[in-house]
Structure formats: structure tokens, C-alpha cells
């Protein structure tokens, strides 16, 4: 059961379905709207619009629950390459938060919008379980790609998994977790909230738990992650 749960989390979005087709359009000169999962086909559509637009694109408005991690990494690479400002409308979670929010030079989270994480390539270090060869190979590829990505964008990779680390995971009451604005800044993100930061949807549903971390506590988690993940660094 634990293996099946991990597989569903790690490989989410790997199967292309009709539901994963996003709404992607240039809503105004210089601005693309993306609503949907970060699937391979959706990110490819976004890239085509980004590259072929008659206008220089400088802003991405996004509403996404996440999706495929490799497609998400490519998505984030485009955001970083084109230095796109990102506006979060309603939700940016999972691989959207991992790779799109982290890669942007400026993120505006609209009022009542929610951002949050629920794991990354390092999560097997904190949630050990059996890994069949094909899964172990996929995770190793993901770990290498994700580490290179965060080195390039100069953001702490631990942002994806602090909520899963000992000392904080026991306090969670939501599958998705986030961090206060100051912690996000210390982790290297550039995020502005239009209103009060929240983990609640506009309809009142709790989507994410927001952790406020003192600098000393954050430094402890970063040091712990450096130690635990050291074996992965060649």
C-alpha cells in the first residue's frame, strides 16, 4: 500500500488524459493564462505559445494543482529562461509550486489564492519504502534533474520537503503545506501576497497548512537536509 501511494504521488500526471488538457491562451499582450495540470502536452502547448507569440511574453497567470514532475521541471525552466512574472490565481500546488513559483523573479499571489507543496525528489529520504528497479531509476533521474534545477535558479531545494521532515511533519493537519512570507524569502523565493496569506480556498476549504518558521528553526531544517541528502551529491 505504501509503495502504491508513493508511486501515485511521484508519478502523478505521467499518463496523459483528456482531463489534463489545460486552458492556455494569450489573454492580453505579453500575458499568457494557464489553467490545468502541468502535464507534458500542456507544457508543450504553453511553450509553443510562449515562443511563437508576436508579443514578448513577460507574465504568466497560472491556476494549477500540479502534475507531472518532469514536465513541471521543464515548465519552470521556461519561466526562468524567459524571466516571467507569475500571478497565482486560485491555486498553485505540487509541481506548480515546486518548479514554477520557485523559478520566477516575481510572484504575485492574488487575494484568496493558495500556494503549497507536498513533496519533491528528496522525499524518499524522509519516507523510506521499497522501490522496484523501475521506480528507483525514475527517482534517481528526478533527483538529478531537480538538484540541477535548484542550483540554476538559486533557490533552496528543501522548500519542497521541509514539511515532510522530522520535527514538522508530526504537526501537519493537511496534505499540502506552505510557509510564511519571510520563510519563503529566506528560501530564495520572490513572492508577494495581494491580501493576507491563506491556506483556505475562497469557498472555505482548507487546502494547505502554513508554517511560520523562525530563522534558527529554518536553518536547522536546511542543515538537516544537507546532511541527509549529501549521499546523492556526486
Could you walk me through the main structural features you see in this protein, from its secondary elements to its overall organization?
With 234 residues, the protein is an alpha/beta fold. Helices cover 36% and strands 18% of the residues. It has one domain: Alpha-Beta Complex (2-enoyl-CoA Hydratase, Chain A, domain 1). The strands form two sheets. Strands 1, 2, 3, 4, 5, 6 and 8 form a seven-stranded mixed β-sheet that branches. Strands 7-9 form a two-stranded parallel ribbon. The longest helix has 21 residues. The N terminus is likely disordered.
List keywords for this structure.
single chain; 234 residues; 2-enoyl-CoA Hydratase, Chain A, domain 1; 7-stranded mixed sheet; 7 helices; 9 strands
Mean pLDDT, to the nearest integer, reads 90
* Helix and strand element order: HEEHEHEHEEHEHEEH
- CATH class group: Alpha Beta
Helical stretch tally? 7
CATH architecture: Alpha-Beta Complex
Shape: globular
Under CATH, the topology can be stated as 2-enoyl-CoA Hydratase, Chain A, domain 1
Outline the biggest β-sheet.
7 strands, mixed
In total, the number of domains comes to: 1
Q: In terms of per-residue confidence, which ranges show pLDDT below 50 for 5 or more consecutive residues?
A: 1-19
* Helix percentage: 25-40%
Strand content: 15-25%
For the termini, the CA-CA separation is 32 Å
Total E-strand runs: 9
CA-atom Rg in angstroms: 17 Å
Structural class: alpha/beta
